[in-house]
Amino acid sequence: MTALPDIQPGLLKFIKNTNARAPPPSESLVFGRTFTDHMLTIPWSLIDGWKEPTIQPYGPLSLEPSATCLHYAQTVFEGMKAYRDDTGKVTLFRPDKNMERMNTSAARLALPTFHGPALLELIKELVRTDKHWIPSEPGHSLYIRPTLIGTQRAIGINPPTEALLFVICSPVGPYYPNGFKPIALYGTTEFNRAAPGGTGAFKIGANYAVGVLPQKVAANKGYQQNLWLYGPEHDLTEVGTMNMFVVFRKPSGGYELVTPPLDGMILPGITRDSVLTLAREHAAGKSPLAELTKDLEVSERRVTMKEVKQAAQDGNLVELFGAGTAAVISPVDRIGYLGEDVLIPTEADGMGPVSRPIWKELVGRQMGAIDHEWSQFVTK
Ligand code: COI
């Protein structure tokens, strides 16, 4: 049997948007509400494999009302960012990781997988096409949203025989409307995001659909995000749409940076991995971070609300933050938990002694200001 065609960048077709617009001023951007002039589409079918990729004007898709993505949430997506520095250099941050994770998510939903480097080449072409949309102000970037959906017309539940991969781009500033200030979390105990053997470790649309109601409950109570607490001991798992880190003071006076382990319920975030890598390299004396103690232990382990509350009472809770592509690093200053607020220390700039040096290095590497293999050149 001959293998079906994979994604072929060489077949790229280009349809120029003749109604191209001028990008709006960066200060008017609301996260994810503005889209650039073009998008990339690549259809797939079981018979033909991956078909001709097309860069075309951003616009509505045509789908059958019976398309499986509309009924059974056959949707996987990625979040990645392109940065433009003040010399005009455009870079992507660890995009190969997004390609790997998208394939893992696609396989979990029985959607077609693809050659990651081929899709990445096409995404770079899309970014080059709309590069004038990338804001270069600090904290701003082009958010890229590759998405793969099942498009087969079918009411029965089966692996789709037709699918569509599309990529859209949105110029963005901070994720939260309060800018880069610390956020307040509401501890969700009545709903679960993920369970053992479930889909929590995959970037699929359904995982985010179940978060909308808890997020609304949190907002109604005056908190910006919900904190997913799992199991009888209320393990801290994820912060709304981000991975989560807690910093405890150790008896030695140093710090322990803790995040829940990848036990199948936690999204293997690329920002999560970057934070862990930077912290571990620092602790090992490789690429040390300025103004951070060497007495830093990095743990992937369970952490419960009891431990967090106790540390807060004892003065040993140093900081708590979320980490994700959209929000980068988002400090937290309180958690609403079973009717009371657990207060989390923050320093004058809203951050803490561990998140600040990590954030500085991360942003330096993301924006291309620090030369590093994580930052991939796209265009000048
Ligand atoms: C991201 O951080 O990129 C995400 O996918 C979260 C999304 C809710 C914006």
Number of strands: 19
Major sheet characteristics: 10 strands, mixed
Rg for CA atoms: 21 Å
Tally the helices: what do you get?
A: 7
- Cα(first) to Cα(last) distance is 43 Å
What's the order of the H and E elements? EEEEHEEEHHEEEHEEEEHEHEEEHE
Name the overall outline.
globular
Helix content percent band: 10-25%
* Beta-strand percentage range: 25-35%
Structural class: alpha+beta
Low-confidence stretches: none
Q: What compounds sit in this structure? A: 2-OXO-4-methylpentanoic acid
Mean pLDDT: 96
Tell me what the structure shows.
There is one protein chain. 22% of the residues lie in helices and 29% in strands. It has 7 helices and 19 strands. The strands form 2 sheets. Strands 1, 2, 3, 4, 5, 6, 7, 8, 9 and 19 form a 10-stranded mixed β-sheet that branches. The mean pLDDT is 96. The protein binds 2-OXO-4-methylpentanoic acid. 2-OXO-4-methylpentanoic acid binds at residues 79, 241, 324-326. Keywords: Amino-acid biosynthesis, Aminotransferase, Branched-chain amino acid biosynthesis, Pyridoxal phosphate, Transferase. This is Branched-chain-amino-acid aminotransferase. It is an enzyme of class 2 (transferase).
